[in-house]
Write a structure and sequence with these properties.
mainly alpha, 4% strand, two-stranded antiparallel ribbon, disordered C terminus, 284 residues
Length: 284
């Protein structure tokens, strides 16, 4: 097997792991399942990944890399120059607009829920947190240099931004009836503007340019002209639902709502939501 083929097969294994872990949770996925989904042997999966923990962290890293590539392509295509536009795009990058975003949120949830009991996973989580915070810190530093941001510390803003955006994403994916994507991005924009001393309105792209096209299977939340949040689910079968869930079972809320809540009171809150999710609920 030549090097190109090895890289291709490893990528297929990671793609399969992303899909299956996001769908079934880490505990519900076996190496044999990943191999079958990727169309390779279980021996090849074991060759590339020493254990299941490594497969989880590598799958999340793989997913994050793809997301970063999409972000870079999008910024280049629309000519988004300037630190304020870069920060606005990073806010959008952190919110769950697409199926890929939701899958990545589930992978983060799986990693965070296991990090407390595993030094290896804790180290991987810290590394990935630094990786996602660095672009925000860089954008803030650039804004200070441009003179449009004031009186802030880039690293502190990045940490606060990640906590804010992760929390808002959890509430969106948990179908909080008081929130919608348009309102959440505006809220995040206002709060980050205050953190960086930005006098203007955060220059987001039009929401229509950020949301995926209809028919992609992505569930999105939109707001009506009166400001009331409504949920609109689009799918290839054109079926509609009042739920924003992209999965037909309760595993969605179980995993996604763990994002950023892996310790202390957060774990207790997750437990309460899990128990609630297992009870039949009107409208879901």
């Amino acid at each position: 097997m030549d090097q190109h083929e090895q890289v291709d097969r490893r990528g297929r294994v990671l793609d399969a792991a992303v899909e299956l872990i996001a769908r079934d949770g880490f505990d519900g996925v076996r190496i044999a399942d990943v191999a079958r989904q990727a169309g390779v042997s279980t021996a090849l999966v074991h060759y590339h990944f020493a254990n299941r923990a490594q497969l989880l962290t590598e799958a999340l890293t793989h997913s994050l890399s793809r997301a970063e590539q999409r972000l870079a392509r999008g910024a280049g295509e629309v000519g988004r120059a300037g630190a304020d536009r870069r920060l606005a795009d990073l806010i959008d990058f952190a919110l769950p607009f697409t199926d890929d975003d939701v899958r990545e949120a589930r992978l983060w949830a799986e990693l965070e829920s296991r990090a407390a009991g595993s030094p290896e996973l804790a180290e991987a989580l810290a590394r990935l947190n630094r990786r996602t915070e660095q672009p925000v810190a860089d954008a803030v530093a650039a804004g200070l240099a441009e003179g449009i941001f004031h009186d802030c510390v880039p690293a502190e803003v990045a940490t606060a931004a990640q906590a804010l955006l992760a929390g808002l994403s959890v509430r969106l994916t948990a179908h909080d009836p008081g929130l919608d994507l348009a309102g959440v991005r505006e809220l995040a924009g206002r709060q980050l503007s205050r953190l960086v001393g930005y006098a203007g309105v955060m220059p987001f792209r039009p929401l229509s340019a950020v949301l995926p096209e209809s028919g992609t299977g992505t569930a999105t939340s939109t707001a009506t002209s009166t400001g009331t949040a409504t949920s609109t689910s689009t799918s290839t079968s054109t079926s509609t639902s009042t739920s924003t869930s992209t999965e037909p079972n309760n595993n969605t809320n179980d995993s996604v709502t763990e994002r950023g809540e892996s310790t202390g009171a957060g774990r207790a809150a997750v437990g309460r939501r899990r128990r609630a999710a297992r009870r039949p609920a009107a409208g879901h």
